[in-house]
């Protein structure tokens, strides 16, 4: 019997939460090596990432590597005025943080720290699972699908790259019409690319 999207989410989230802190730390430390010669980063000046939550691949070593390269980093924030939309706020080592309604750390909203999504060069997206065709399964809120829709429909806006543990790759995922497939997903050991 084919698993539902909900069952897949539960199963994969349980697997990634089962990784011990030492495994999480080691895997996240390997991530910047995947980006050293990545062609999309050669021109990038503004990138959006996320802070790990619920067993997601930790992005802090990657964020620190971007800072060392002079690349400005931004984090997603729930838009208080547009339900279901994301804002992207500049993130640095001294950014004041607060927890959103999902318990995820995000920068405090301050004037002049936001960037329009279409002005980002790359958006690194979290995901629950991905398959060998580039389909992405998120948490179910549709935040990233809405944000990435212009790229998917017109190839305009920021280039999306998924970040995940290797264990989050599945042979095939059930998809919906609103799902935005990714052109690539990067894990600590591999770069998966699709055209």
UniProtKB/TrEMBL annotation:
<feature type="binding site">
    <location>
        <position position="51"/>
    </location>
    <ligand>
        <name>substrate</name>
    </ligand>
</feature>
<keyword id="KW-0479">Metal-binding</keyword>
<dbReference type="GO" id="GO:0046872">
    <property type="term" value="F:metal ion binding"/>
</dbReference>
<keyword id="KW-0547">Nucleotide-binding</keyword>
<dbReference type="InterPro" id="IPR024185">
    <property type="entry name" value="FTHF_cligase-like_sf"/>
</dbReference>
<dbReference type="GO" id="GO:0035999">
    <property type="term" value="P:tetrahydrofolate interconversion"/>
</dbReference>
<comment type="similarity">
    <text>Belongs to the 5-formyltetrahydrofolate cyclo-ligase family.</text>
</comment>
<protein>
    <recommendedName>
        <fullName>5-formyltetrahydrofolate cyclo-ligase</fullName>
        <ecNumber>6.3.3.2</ecNumber>
    </recommendedName>
</protein>
<dbReference type="InterPro" id="IPR002698">
    <property type="entry name" value="FTHF_cligase"/>
</dbReference>
<feature type="binding site">
    <location>
        <begin position="136"/>
        <end position="144"/>
    </location>
    <ligand>
        <name>ATP</name>
    </ligand>
</feature>
<dbReference type="GO" id="GO:0009396">
    <property type="term" value="P:folic acid-containing compound biosynthetic process"/>
</dbReference>
<dbReference type="GO" id="GO:0030272">
    <property type="term" value="F:5-formyltetrahydrofolate cyclo-ligase activity"/>
</dbReference>
<dbReference type="InterPro" id="IPR037171">
    <property type="entry name" value="NagB/RpiA_transferase-like"/>
</dbReference>
<feature type="binding site">
    <location>
        <begin position="5"/>
        <end position="9"/>
    </location>
    <ligand>
        <name>ATP</name>
    </ligand>
</feature>
<dbReference type="Pfam" id="PF01812">
    <property type="entry name" value="5-FTHF_cyc-lig"/>
</dbReference>
<dbReference type="GO" id="GO:0005524">
    <property type="term" value="F:ATP binding"/>
</dbReference>
<keyword id="KW-0460">Magnesium</keyword>
<keyword id="KW-0436">Ligase</keyword>
<feature type="binding site">
    <location>
        <position position="56"/>
    </location>
    <ligand>
        <name>substrate</name>
    </ligand>
</feature>
<keyword id="KW-0067">ATP-binding</keyword>
């Amino acid at each position: 019997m084919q698993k539902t999207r909900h069952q897949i989410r539960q199963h994969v989230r349980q697997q990634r939460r089962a990784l011990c802190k030492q495994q999480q730390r080691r895997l996240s430390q390997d991530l910047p090596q995947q980006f050293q010669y990545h062609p999309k980063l050669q021109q990038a000046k503004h990138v959006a990432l996320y802070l790990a939550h619920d067993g997601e691949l930790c992005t802090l070593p990657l964020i620190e590597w971007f800072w060392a390269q002079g690349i400005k980093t931004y984090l997603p924030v729930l838009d208080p005025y547009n339900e279901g939309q994301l804002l992207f706020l500049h993130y640095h080592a001294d950014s004041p943080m607060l927890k959103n309604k999902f318990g995820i750390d995000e920068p405090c909203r301050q004037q002049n720290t936001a960037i329009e999504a279409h002005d980002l060069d790359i958006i690194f997206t979290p995901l629950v699972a991905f398959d060998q065709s580039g389909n992405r399964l998120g948490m179910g809120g549709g935040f990233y699908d809405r944000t990435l829709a212009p790229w998917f429909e017109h190839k305009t806006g920021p280039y999306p790259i998924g970040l995940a543990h290797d264990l989050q790759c599945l042979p095939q995922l059930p998809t919906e019409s609103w799902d935005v497939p990714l052109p690539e997903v990067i894990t600590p050991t591999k770069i998966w690319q699709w055209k």
